[in-house]
Input
Amino acid sequence: MRNIPETSAGTSAETDTAGAAAGTAPVRFDTKIAVLLRDDLEPWQRLNVTAFLVSGLGTAAHEVIGEPYEDADGTPYLPMFRQPVLVFEGTKETLTAAHGRALSRSLPRAVFTSDLFGTGNDRDNRAAVRAVPKDQLDLVGLLVYGPRNGVDKVLKGARMHP
Output
């Protein structure tokens, strides 16, 4: 999805104003999906980390998945997230602090550590994360999902990805 800045939160998962029925008003969400990437990653690593981090969210938070797509010819396509994924970047210290805040707020999260660049499968990925205590993870990416204000507080010090 496009990296779209969000505006004020609504009062429900999707706030629909009078014009929304006609498809003219924007839909605003009271939740946020955010990926925080370490600022020293190579471009291919940023894409890889982002893809891996967001892949688990739909299985844990079913409400983030929209309806399936279909083109004018009736060809079906998989459903996607119903809201934008915002991508941020920060230093190693910013990631470590954000991870601690996400844990303290018990927000749904996913991590990608530098060790995962050297593995080639899910079993080895999980073993690499399991081998390191949470305070010693060499984080290169973090996904956080939850109430907008909570996610904003977790991301304190991060900046929008260019």
